[in-house]
Amino acid sequence: MIAEVSFPIALNRTFYYRIPERLTGLMKPGLRIVASFAGRERVAGYVTAVLEEKDADLSALPSLKEITEAVDSEPVFPPEKLGEIVSYMASRWYCEAPVVLGNFLALIPDGPVLPAPERVSVAVFENPEFSEKIKKFLDAEDKTAALVFNDRKESENLTAAAAYALSKGLRCLFLVPDIPSAIALYKSFLNGALAEETALWHSRLTKKRKRELWNHVYAGEKRIVAGTKSSVFLPFLAKTLIIMADHGNEMYRQFDQKPYYNTRALAMKLAGIFGHKILLAGNPPDAELYHLHLNGGLELLDEGGTGKIRYEMVDMRKNPETAVSPELNEAVKRAMAAGRKAYVIASSRGFSPRSFCAKCYWMKRCGKCNSLMHIFEDEEGARFYRCSYCSHKEEYSASCGKCGNQLMVAKGFGVQRIFKELKKMYPEKRILKFDGDDVKKSVNETEKIITGIMDGNFDVLLGTAIILDSFLVREAGTVAFAEMYHKNSADFRLNEKILQNIMKASALLGYGDSELVIQSHEPESFSFLDFADYRKFLEEELDLRKTFSYPPFSFMARVEFISADPVSLKDFSNSFIESLRDEARLSELNIIEHRYPYKLKFVKRLSKYSHSNTFKIGKDAYGPFLAFIAGLKPPKKTKISVLTDL
Q1: Is this model's pTM higher than 0.85 or not?
Q2: What is the rounded distance in angstroms from the CA atom of residue 242 to the CA atom of residue 93?
């Protein structure tokens, strides 16, 4: 007998191994095994198929190695379902299937895993004010996917939904976009009856702790996981409710390493394959989800909590030198005078997100990777540059690097700049700052800051958009966006993202005299916020998307060629573009639109050059295109990177 084995390598292929006689009756698809591979004596592999020797093409193999041992007696994951999700991820996000498989298998304990025990559910639900719409969805046998939004009691209703799911015998994977949200959510469960049932999961846990939690989840000892995006790979095999808070948050997109998945799409696919329920929450539907709803694939649960957005737009062209306008200053004062909190959201970390010459418009870029550099200040107030891409630091200079004039301007308001102004305005008040730089501190330090926020130990909370989290913060008297941009963006989802952020902010406002303030240097660009009904906004948005073939009416991908040799990269890029000038080829590959520069442009980052092309491909017809990209033969030392599902 022959076993077809997959190893966690970046190659789309499997390997044949002979099954020793002692394992013949045991071997089946889905088992983990140990065998010698690539010069190493003991490497963990995964059996994808078991074949009779006559059914395997062994003509190119002079001899076959034997499997050393089987790790499991039964598959840990159902092989058919795991195979289906691996195939989906590999094809949709252009990744080698063994790499995808490795994400599911990486944290399984080294030894045998016992079958997960059946567990009798315990009725722990005690919340008579729980949302009737969510309860009705959870009770319905024929409803599998829903989106709840416009909910002023979001955190209470979602934690109650988790408790209700457990009382019905389900488990709960509770997804949040970032570590602060995960910690805040976990703390909210620690104060209730489900403390012993709940686990915290995020990327900064040790590998040992992750393995322990994997075991707890598999055995049903931890039936609720409050986790960031990688928790989708945990073994929720029994019937589960997946709750995804702040479903439109960009932090759910995996960019750091393959597979470059979209957590929302993956969670919805997992729910479909394993028979789970999924409840998206937070923002109103985006255009893709609204299109899914119109086609019967998603139920909308509008709690009606925010209604029409009420806001004050402040034209910052009248106050170009200050980050806190007189209007914002007064709004913050009114909140504090009433004994209420004020939240101020900055557009970026640091002191200023841009630095350019007022004479020649030269902009400061990173000496290592050519990305734009932000201005930061140290504890003594001395400025320095830090790269937004690679975090490289450089000394600050007021001199232009191109024309030499002392006319470098710090443009835009980062957290540090706004913090200095707020401290000067309200020296006796508690101004608390929280942004991505605080998250990068030790987990203990981050937890202390989060505890202070949840306990309300501040008068004004200043941060980036991560503070717009209903698990982290509570009702406010004033919420303000210190600087909101709109123009000169190629992001076709920009209006949608702005509307969602503002509706998140609106949901945090209390009733009565609560205020939402938006500061902008381009206030005329935000007329779309005046829609009385999000449905009208989304219907017009879908009409535009259809006209210009944007998602959900197409599948978008960016193909990037990367090399240290600019000459060979240019030749390869030219030949690639020429190969796509034929209309028949474009039709064969289902390419609707191919965007590339009229003149080839190359970006240099970290000693490498790159050239990218963006494609719109027929919806659900991306297979031939991705197969074509996989078949390209780039020059030596040239890498092809593909980011799909844009």
Answers
A1: yes
A2: 22
